[in-house]
Design brief:
Largest sheet: 4 strands, mixed
Radius of gyration: 16 Å
Bound molecules: zinc ion
Strand order of the largest sheet: 1-3-2-4
Order of helices and strands: HHEEEHHEHHHHH
Structural class: alpha+beta
Strand content: 5-15%
Number of domains: 1
Low-confidence stretches: 128-133
Mean pLDDT: 91
Number of helices: 9
Length: 198
């Protein structure tokens, strides 16, 4: 199976992290103290549309689709069904999905509209696994999916409190609970920051 990936402007991980940090400082600076997770639902519901002019909503989406960002319609939709799931791992998955789609809304929608290209990003069950290794078309730093995943990690697990928690002895499970992210995302974030987790 393959999925065509449109190239985005090249971006470095550190630059993507910096954008996430600026947003945390602007909207929820208390997160940087390291005791509380970023409230990404609040950011999505109250701040994102004002920030970038993209309409946001929770709606019923076809089964297995968790988020859709559409540059033509200028909208970013998260699955209402996903938001209602009670399991902790689904809540954490919903948080990373919102952060991921939020990056497409803030950065890729204006970029693709300017280029008169169409971005229609659909976040389904295979999103994570497929998009990241479909690299034949596009180098990783120009892959909009890689960029959005990097951003989601940076928004939910900002570098300073993430590193401080590790220095304080936090393992993967503790980090997952503190930052409300699934363990796989914690591991990816550590890897992105070149940290070896015990
Ligand atoms: Zn995406």
């Amino acid at each position: 199976m393959s999925r065509r990936v449109l190239a985005a402007d090249p971006r470095k991980g550190a630059d993507i992290d910096f954008l996430a940090l600026q947003l945390i400082e602007r909207y929820q600076p208390e997160v940087l103290a390291g005791n509380t997770a970023f409230d990404v639902e609040k950011f999505f519901e109250f701040d994102l549309e004002d920030l970038c002019g993209v309409k946001v909503d929770y709606r019923e989406l076809p089964s297995g689709i968790y988020g859709v960002t559409d540059s033509e319609r200028k909208e970013c939709i998260i699955s209402a069904e996903l938001m209602d799931r009670p399991r902790k791992s689904d809540k954490y998955f919903a948080r990373s999905t919102i952060a991921h789609e939020g990056y497409h809304a803030m950065v890729h929608i204006p970029e693709f509209r300017k280029k008169r290209a169409v971005l229609k990003s659909i976040n389904d069950e295979q999103h994570a696994s497929l998009c990241l290794y479909r690299q034949e078309d596009v180098p990783i730093y120009m892959n909009p999916e890689w960029q959005a995943f990097r951003f989601a990690g940076a928004l939910l697990m900002p570098e300073e409190p993430f590193k401080a928690s590790i220095r304080n002895g936090y393992g993967v499970r503790d980090l997952a609970d503190l930052f409300q992210a699934n363990p796989a995302n914690v591991c990816s974030r550590a890897k992105a920051l070149s940290i070896l987790l015990k």
